[in-house]
Amino acid sequence: MTDPTADLTDLRADIDRIDAEIADLIAERVERAEAVADVKSSAGRALVDEDREATVASHHATLFAERGLDPDDGRALAEFLIDVALDRERTVDGEA
Ligand SMILES: C=C(O[C@@H]1C=C(C(=O)O)C=C[C@H]1O)C(=O)O
Questions:
Q1: Of 28, 47, 75, 95, which has the highest C-beta tally within 10 A?
Q2: Can you give the residue ranges of the Chorismate mutase domain (predicted)?
Q3: Number of structural domains found in the chain
Q4: Which residue from 86, 92, 93 has its CB within 8 A of the most atoms of ligand 1, so it is best to mutate?
Q5: What CATH number did the domain enclosing 36 receive?
Q6: 45-72: b (≥16 Cβ within 10 Å) or e
């Protein structure tokens, strides 16, 4: 008789690994946002770019829809990612 909880352990290990990959990707995204903040600061441009944020949100909605996920969840994820990026950008920009 096989132990069904062994599957649970393996599946949760997969989830933990995937979460670590997500955290790595978020850290990479934040790094790029810092670089964008430097460019915007040098160019005298505002930190917040609402047009770009709308494009990012719509991109996430499409990416989610293409994967059979709820596009509204994609938009919510975009909002979260943008908040994380802007928190760091404000720190770099000396506004925090
Ligand atoms: C990274 C940028 O800065 C901000 C953060 C964004 C993001 O995290 O995608 C998008 C627009 C900006 O409000 C950018 O301008 O591209």
A1: 75
A2: 2-93
A3: 1
A4: 86
A5: 1.20.59.10
A6: eeeeeeeeeeebbeebbeebeeeeeebe
